[in-house]
Amino acid sequence: MNPCLPTDQLTCYIVRHGERIDHIDDTWAITSATPYDPPLTADGWAQAREAGSMIRDLEPQADSDYLVLVSPFLRCAQTAQAIHEGFHKGEGAQWRVALEPGLSEVINENYFHSADNVPTGIAAERRDQLGRGDVCGNMGFDNEYCPAQAELPAFPESFQSMLARFTAVLDHVAARANGGMGGKRAVVVLVTHGAGVTALRWATTRRLEGSNDVPYCALFKATLDRGAAWTASTLLSPNL
Q1: Which burial class, exposed, middle or buried, applies to 214 when counting CB atoms under 10 A from its CB (0-12, 13-18, 19+)?
Q2: In angstroms, rounded to a whole number, what is the distance separating the alpha carbons of residues 212 and 155?
């Protein structure tokens, strides 16, 4: 990784999505046309807004530029929208959103019964929705962001492949920051899944923590200094 970063550190917030509807309603997936893409519950929206408030309190500057990268799954896009609602800090902060398929759910038999159940078209569909403002309409869409991975991973995805995927996303974000993300201080918010939070904590700390230990909308702050060394905070959870 090129150590010649901007003067300010790169700051990332890694956030798990909020509570999903199929985790409280066992019948939802039976009748849904998109059983592998559940939306947030009302509590999930509230958790995500609280996560936005937490980021607001952790941020020292009100006028930073925010780039929000989201997994293609609806629960992550909705979480990003609610994070922005909960942040709501001053007129100087500019928020943009972009799709990053590299932040997607783990594509294996624990989440999808077979390759036929993987929603392969979800990345293109969600990108179109983001572009139209159907979701995350409270942020500008960053049409220039080129993702680390264009599509969902191939089924079945191994644990090591999953770790490598999330590490590649983190390296991609760092390289983009090295190339310049605008004149003001830039902050990147990555909205992903429980396993993604675990993988990104490993990528920044080299410590593995079980994905089952990641509560809804738990987050941590990671910073990359000019020496290309990551530091990460403890995992924080909304008080809901």
Answers
A1: buried
A2: 22
Average pLDDT over residues 38-46: 98
- CA 193 centroid distance within chain: 7
In angstroms, what CA-CA distances link 112 with 63, 78, 119, 154, 209?
41, 21, 9, 12, 22
Residues 10 and 118: their CA atoms lie apart, in Å, by: 34
Neighbours of 225 (CB within 10 A): 13
For the chain, what is the largest distance between any 2 Cα atoms, rounded to a whole number of angstroms? 52
Note the pLDDT tens digit of each residue in 139-176: 999 999 999 999 999 999 999 999 999 999 999 999 88
* Sequence-separated (6 or more) residues with CB below 8 Å from residue 82: 18, 40, 45, 46, 48, 49, 51, 52
Rounded to whole angstroms, how far apart are CA atoms 73 and 52? 19
Residues 6 or more apart whose Cβ sits within 8 Å of residue 57: none
Check: CB of residue 167 under 8 Å from CB of residue 123. Answer: no
* Domains in the chain with CATH codes: 10-232 (3.40.50.1240)
